[in-house]
């Protein structure tokens, strides 16, 4: 497994990271096998969160006895000092460790949320105190709006940043990564196959790894997935392959959606899950699970076009910070 230095943290990490959110769908016995196998295959970066069900607990039970072999990152989505402190302490207990290498302020998408965590009684103060006591190595941030993450990296000395990067969501390459590089911030690229959607898995993983990200974080839940992902990132992307991957990805981002989740639909159309894979679906098709998810929304597209409260201006478009023509995108999808 190839390794990188994770920015100014100085930590040596595997180029492929293990995203542990999907552990909540596994038994403890299955988790033990998959996580142990990932370590054996050279994966040394493991990412979880307090919000991921029992993921922390399963990870702790499975590999805490090998704690010296991996870099451990978890997250708190709490915004106040008191709640964040309590959650960090619970995470340490569940992970069966006396320290985490990286504590990330989780899912910060609104300017007000950032102001909240920066307050004197905000979550960052809790992270700083735990860092001073040796329970936290470095403080990071995660979110779905790359241009805002770039602004926040310039406001506070976060050591790492976790963000979307894939063929269908390449926006961080221009909106975030140049700033992160200039500040030597550790870059962790998540959702390289956009959750359950992108059918060309190897090419998708390699597209993300062709960037300057230090870790490509992939959610895995089986030994077969671990082996396939390790094989996909076994060697570096050269210039010729990079050009081919760029050609493959051309136009797949025209939907413009960052998955900020500002929008909501009273008809329960999953707007990001409709827009983001739309061009890819037309060109390459989706994974089976992704197609099923897409179809759940597609069944309601006709209602969207006649829904009375959205006739003058669709509710989702009023909420979208990128002013995307969402209803027109749905019309295209129907056609």
Write structural notes for this entry:
- InterPro entries: AKR (IPR020471), AKR2_Oxidoreductase (IPR053135), NAD(P)_OxRdtase_dom_sf (IPR036812), NADP_OxRdtase_dom (IPR023210).
- With 335 residues, this protein is of the alpha/beta class.
- It folds into two domains: 3-246, TIM Barrel (Alpha-Beta Barrel); 271-334, no CATH class.
- Helices cover 43% and strands 14% of the residues.
- It has 17 helices and ten strands.
- The strands form two sheets. It has an eight-stranded parallel beta barrel with strand order 3-4-5-6-7-8-9-10, surrounded by four helices. Strands 1-2 form a two-stranded antiparallel ribbon.
CATH homologous superfamily placement of the largest domain: NADP-dependent oxidoreductase domain
Q: What is the count of β-strands? A: 10
Main sheet: strands, sense, barrel? 8 strands, parallel, barrel
CATH class of the largest domain: Alpha Beta
